[in-house]
Amino acid sequence: MFINHIVEINYICIYKKLLIMALEVIISKTINVPCVGFGTYKLTGETCIKVVEEALQFGYRHIDTAQYYNNEEAIGTAVKNSSLDRDKVFITTKIFPTDFSRMIPAVEDSLRRLQMDRVDLLLLHWPSDDKTNSIAIEGLNQALNKGYTKSIGVSNFNIEKLKKALKEAPIICNQVEYHPYIAQQKLLTFMKKNVMFMTAYSPLAKGRVFKDAVLENLARKYNRTIGQVVLRWLLQQGDISVIPKASSAEKIKENLNIFDFVLASEDMKVISCLSGDNRITNSKWSPEWD
Predict the structure, then answer these.
(1) Catalytic residue at 222?
(2) Fewer CB in 10 Å around end: N or C, the chain?
(3) HEC string of 30-88?
(4) From 60, 69, 148, 181, the catalytic residue
């Protein structure tokens, strides 16, 4: 009984050590970002509160939201309901293009809903035309100077728009769709050269990865789930955070449990060979992709 108790304690200690070592990835000298975040798109109300509370309980420390998701208030409530200090949870929110002309009031609206005095990362949700983008980026700078956010970035920007944004503000992040079926190497290479990190949304291709025979074979090889293999593939590319969404406790836990194995270089290449231009998310705000 005593030996089993020691084994159990050791397992818990190792698990906690893996989380501590791997959840925080140092992106620059000014920001630490937990590399596995929790996506909340289409989670609202009491369901959102419950699921986010579970995610925080299981060890997530990075929650992604947006004005457009209509769940900022629920997320703020979930964080308040947890026993965690605010500084222990990395919060990202996004401002939609329709509010680019009123950035500061829009950010203040988000903070009221989140019940917080600042977020950790503030993003432009989609690009607009160059003139409107410039107005919005100036708003990001103002939000940064006011202490409304610790850092600023963009989402769904192509390289051309990203270059222009970098000339106007200390952009550190671009959140884009990235999974095995879409090539993002060109964009990722550009971002790494400019000391930025990529946040990959829809990292599991909205469930499409679970029907892939190639990924199924790799999952068997590593004795992991397909989702775990794909998330591991993304993180091993470096300077990437992922924000998978899950609603069941099993999946929430599973997506976080990816730090005690490493994909071989040849298997990384196998997954990369699945890529093409199979974009799932399209919007009227979408830029012309590289």
Answers:
(1) no
(2) N
(3) CCEEECECEECCCCCHHHHHHHHHHHHHHCCCEEECCHHHCCHHHHHHHHHHCCCCHHH
(4) 69
